[in-house]
Design goal:
This protein is an alpha+beta fold. It is 24% helix and 30% strand. The relative contact order is 0.14. Bound molecules: pyridoxal-5'-phosphate. The site of pyridoxal-5'-phosphate has 15 residues, from α5 and β15.
Length: 356
């Protein structure tokens, strides 16, 4: 246990942006949560302090060997003025699973959850209220030993920073065009694809950059061995609606288990839809499209929530869905999840936690 949480507030508050000006990830609030770790001592010096730069040595291990993990969750302001967070404990528990894979120390979820709630209550005036905007919460841990030579670091630092955000994609809820990647791969079984670790993104940037140059918003990854089975989208899990069934690839060792994915499966089951977690080959999707049974494709992730897909391009073969419009299940899921998040629909799964 890191002991007491110390709090040092700044008197120099920043100006808050207007909701309609918000984009994703460019503005940070006045304060952050920080805590240090040293082998033999555990986590210590837990503190809330002004957001700002910190001292690092160029030899800091995270720069060289990439021992870094992160999370991304959201806090909301409801219509009646309450402040809530979506499934915070589940995200912190996932952080511990990522830590384990990356040989990093686990956190005391109870303590960090309490510290996060304190930070949110200090920063609550930063939480926007318009639909589509929220306060993005970014916890992360980096290896801090000043050391060259590969081994797990003996010291780490955890931060939680906060950013008021609008839609993740400039398209908002509008459908996105996706490039099916058949050269580059993101991850393979046995690798680190199941961990929310920075290196997965480092590995993905080249493909995303090239897809964007060709006019696509995201990349759909295929499996790293055969380039045949569908894995996930850059920052999202992927779902298909084929012949009235919802299908998504299983969590079998190379993809990230999204909280939004889990919430979508829960909801679709609750609605009595048939949901299958099973391997899907890219050519099956094209066959379903030819047969006319492919109804919808959508991505799921905390940042965009539900992102309908309007088209896929796989080696020049193009599928267009719903005439470029969002499908009915995508719309229904988006409305239901955001309805629960903004407090307009009863929270029957106990997903929202209120901040005092
Ligand atoms: C974070 C992330 C997701 C989405 O997970 P959520 O918990 O729903 O936000 C999907 N894929 C990858 C690679 C991710 O890093």
């Amino acid at each position: 246990m890191p002991g007491e949480l110390s709090i040092n507030l700044t008197g120099n508050l920043k100006e808050k942006p207007r909701d309609e000006k918000l984009v994703f990830g460019t503005i940070f609030t006045d304060h952050m949560f920080v805590m240090d770790y040293e082998e033999g001592k555990g986590w210590y010096n837990a503190r809330i302090e002004p957001y700002g730069p910190f001292y690092v040595e160029p030899s800091m291990m995270v720069f060289h060997y990439g021992q870094a993990i992160f999370e991304g969750m959201k806090a909301y302001r409801t219509k009646d003025g309450r402040v809530t967070v979506f499934r915070p404990r589940s995200y912190l528990e996932r952080m511990n699973r990522s830590a384990d894979r990356m040989c990093m120390p686990s956190i005391d979820v109870y303590f960090v959850h309490k510290a996060l709630k304190k930070l949110l209550s200090i920063e609550k005036d930063w939480i926007p209220s318009s639909i589509g905007s929220s306060l993005y919460i970014r916890p992360f841990i980096v290896a801090t030993d000043p050391h060259l030579g590969v081994r797990p670091s003996y010291t780490y630092r955890l931060f939680i920073i906060l950013s008021p955000v609008g839609a993740y994609y400039p398209e908002g809820f509008k459908p996105v065009k996706i490039w099916v990647e058949s050269d580059y791969v993101r991850s393979v079984k046995g690798g680190v694809g199941t961990a929310k670790t920075s290196g997965n993104y480092a590995a993905s940037i080249r493909a995303l950059f090239e897809a964007k140059k060709r006019g696509f918003t995201e990349v759909l990854w295929l499996d790293g061995v055969e380039r045949k089975y569908i894995e996930e989208v850059g920052t999202m899990n992927i779902f298909f609606k084929i012949a009235d069934r919802i299908v998504t690839p299983p969590l079998d060792g190379s993809i990230l288990g999204g909280m939004t994915r889990d919430s979508v499966i829960t909801l679709a089951n609750d609605w009595g839809m048939e949901v299958r977690e099973e391997k899907l080959a890219i050519d099956e999707i094209y066959e379903a499209s030819d047969k006319g049974t492919l109804q919808e494709i959508f991505g799921t992730g905390t940042a965009a929530v539900i992102s309908p897909v309007s088209s896929l391009n796989w080696d020049g073969k193009v599928i267009t869905l719903n005439g470029g419009h969002a499908g009915e299940t995508s719309v229904r899921l988006y409305d239901e999840i955001t309805g629960i998040q903004y407090g307009n629909i009863p929270d029957r799964f106990d997903w929202m936690e209120e901040i005092e």
